[in-house]
Design goal:
With 166 residues, this protein is α+β, with helices and mostly antiparallel strands. 39% of the residues lie in helices and 17% in strands. It contains six helices and six strands, in the order αααββαββαββα.
């Protein structure tokens, strides 16, 4: 988290100015801090395409600024909650989720949209196929939950092949 602190001699100067200016000083201070936060948000918005390959507009526009107030001259630049959920994986690492369960969401040869994501309804489309299932698979690294396609070899596993009659 980035924290910027602006300290000055506001208290010393405020004693020397008139009462009108004295009443407007907290407003000016809050406005200045808010404008500084907006500049930081614009810089962060410009930096998102440098971090992610072809980010979606939803991701780019997820930055927001909480304005400072006269009573509390602190402005905050943050990422909205919905985007923060999936961006936290890129920031801190961790496990991806499919619904409420941990999953491996690396599609192999799947059609993607112009942002590199699976289009809406793709998982539902794959689930209609008889050779695809959603669930855990035991691997060498442990159990992995995901969307899997059964190969032809595994569907014949444990069954004897019919011998042609001569």
């Amino acid at each position: 988290m980035l924290e910027i602190s602006v300290t000055s001699n506001v208290d010393a100067v405020s004693h020397r100015v008139s009462t009108l200016a004295y009443r407007q000083l907290p407003f000016a201070e809050a406005r200045t801090v808010t404008e500084l936060a907006k500049l930081a948000a614009v810089a962060e918005k410009a930096a998102i395409p440098q971090v992610f390959d072809n980010p979606t507009p939803f991701t780019v526009n997820s930055l927001a600024v909480q304005a400072a107030r006269k009573e509390l001259p602190i402005a905050c630049v943050y990422i909205r909650d919905r985007a923060a959920q999936y961006l936290a994986l890129y920031e801190f690492g961790g496990v991806q989720f499919l619904g409420g369960k941990p999953a491996d969401l690396v599609p192999v040869a799947a059609a993607v949209n112009r942002y590199g994501n699976l289009p809406r309804g793709t998982i539902r489309k794959y689930m209609n196929r008889p050779d695809v299932f959603l669930g855990p698979v035991k691997t060498a690294h442990g159990e992995v939950y995901g969307l899997w396609q059964q190969s032809h070899c595994t569907s014949m596993q444990g069954k004897r092949a019919a011998r042609p009659k001569v």
